[in-house]
């Protein structure tokens, strides 16, 4: 029976190296360098390129990809063990070539792209020399894609796109956008949209503004509010088949959600480490914070939450490896997606609180962690929608009863058991 929590010794050695490398070489970049997606930042490039070279030499570059795309093909379980380390650092995913949203964009280009599309867009993306943007959500609709309005019409040998997109992450740094647009309004909702590759320099692409998260200063955001005004791309810039937009989006989001969850383990552990350090370092009148029962309770609760979540993520990663089909693991991915923001939010909030005023200040990153937890509850679909997915999938495995009382009704069960065992039970036996 295969049920093993050990990591194979050679990979465990790699992970030890990653721990040390991320702590010593990469985490310092988080507090001095700008945005990892800005490939024009020469100062960052000069520091990061040699680190990326080291990662390649260790065979850990783009670990989310198979060998045919230049990755080691470790599978999701090994990737999870790596990503939970990378999740501690803002820069680490880019240093290791597996940063979202580029990783998800690369995945759909690899699965649905033509040879030409792969050469022009996928190769430089995998190489780490360009950034990309996934442009699907609209200002008036996000969670429900059937309400999207951005449209594309076929004109000669071009597609012409019109519409607005909201929260298109990294639009300002992207070399190309993957844009979902309605192409067949009369078709069934899930066949009515298609996916297009739009080079950033195409006339008619306008970033109305860059929206930031709550803790970011105005003007520093990287979530583009983008207008597409008569944007013309050649017909060969359709990704997949006409009407495939929804299927492609699902493929992209399945992997993306799990990869976010893997990194969230690392982020929550980082908050947890800070909580424990604070508890052991700060005095109250009666002694260290760590000696107080209420503090111990928070530490225990946080540890349990992180470990429970980690097991759910690892099992889901293992299932993806086993089935190699996100559809078969839909429920598990949705469960991970629902659990993720709560774990990070709970642990970050406790840590923030234990740090007192310092905790809410801009000298620690706990406020950012809490906002990021809320972000994880929205990006790739809000929690409520994923709960519906889980409930529907679970309920599909159950049957209603036709009887007045439920199947667990004790008097009914007792009666049935007495009848079944009538020949072996002593005469006149009564269970009551
Ligand atoms: C940091 C971040 C990065 C993002 N990056 C991208 C990106 O790169 N590209 C992109 O296209 N999009 C991106 N998004 C957008 C994201 O996909 C949407 O925010 C998400 O799908 C929700 O859509 P919405 O914001 O329009 O919220 P709405 O759809 O308006 O939903 C708002 C709330 O309404 C409730 N709700 C909605 N539908 C239901 C339902 N069926 N049942 C119960 N309650 C419901 C939920 O409480 C939900 O949180 C990003 C979002 C964030 C926060």
Automatic annotation (TrEMBL):
<dbReference type="InterPro" id="IPR046373">
    <property type="entry name" value="Acyl-CoA_Oxase/DH_mid-dom_sf"/>
</dbReference>
<dbReference type="Pfam" id="PF02771">
    <property type="entry name" value="Acyl-CoA_dh_N"/>
</dbReference>
<dbReference type="InterPro" id="IPR013786">
    <property type="entry name" value="AcylCoA_DH/ox_N"/>
</dbReference>
<keyword id="KW-0274">FAD</keyword>
<dbReference type="InterPro" id="IPR009075">
    <property type="entry name" value="AcylCo_DH/oxidase_C"/>
</dbReference>
<dbReference type="InterPro" id="IPR006091">
    <property type="entry name" value="Acyl-CoA_Oxase/DH_mid-dom"/>
</dbReference>
<dbReference type="InterPro" id="IPR037069">
    <property type="entry name" value="AcylCoA_DH/ox_N_sf"/>
</dbReference>
<dbReference type="Pfam" id="PF00441">
    <property type="entry name" value="Acyl-CoA_dh_1"/>
</dbReference>
<keyword id="KW-0560">Oxidoreductase</keyword>
<feature type="domain" description="Acyl-CoA dehydrogenase/oxidase C-terminal">
    <location>
        <begin position="243"/>
        <end position="394"/>
    </location>
</feature>
<feature type="domain" description="Acyl-CoA dehydrogenase/oxidase N-terminal">
    <location>
        <begin position="16"/>
        <end position="128"/>
    </location>
</feature>
<dbReference type="InterPro" id="IPR050741">
    <property type="entry name" value="Acyl-CoA_dehydrogenase"/>
</dbReference>
<dbReference type="InterPro" id="IPR036250">
    <property type="entry name" value="AcylCo_DH-like_C"/>
</dbReference>
<keyword id="KW-0285">Flavoprotein</keyword>
<dbReference type="InterPro" id="IPR009100">
    <property type="entry name" value="AcylCoA_DH/oxidase_NM_dom_sf"/>
</dbReference>
<dbReference type="Pfam" id="PF02770">
    <property type="entry name" value="Acyl-CoA_dh_M"/>
</dbReference>
<feature type="domain" description="Acyl-CoA oxidase/dehydrogenase middle">
    <location>
        <begin position="133"/>
        <end position="219"/>
    </location>
</feature>
<comment type="subunit">
    <text>Homodimer.</text>
</comment>
<protein>
    <submittedName>
        <fullName>Acyl-CoA dehydrogenase family protein</fullName>
    </submittedName>
</protein>
<comment type="similarity">
    <text>Belongs to the acyl-CoA dehydrogenase family.</text>
</comment>
